[in-house]
Write a structure and sequence with these properties.
Mean pLDDT: 84
Radius of gyration: 18 Å
Structural class: mainly alpha
Shape: globular
Largest sheet: none
Strand content: under 5%
Low-confidence stretches: 1-23
Length: 113
Amino acid sequence: MRPQLLPSPCLAALVLSLACLPAAADPDAARARQLVRMVRQDCGSCHGMKLTGGLGPALTREALADRPVDSLAATIVHGRPGTAMPPWRSMLTSEEARWIAERLLAGFPAEAP
């Protein structure tokens, strides 16, 4: 079989459609502060106020290092059925969940005083 030098039409269409998706916009400064507070207070009630673990697992950069950002964002939006992790889709957009997941992977910021 001869090696294929060009991607198949379906693969090319998929790559092109993914490249055309808009990047998730960062929330404005006020919403970013709300999201940081939400994670620190609401998520912290199960994951520990320093996000180092509690009833739920740690949400530190080190603990999440091998987790894909899309998987973390999906867990935030949809929760984990059969566990205490609730879905947050009624309070967050998918873009906000991804923003949170990205911040968790980078080391979540402290709440502003």
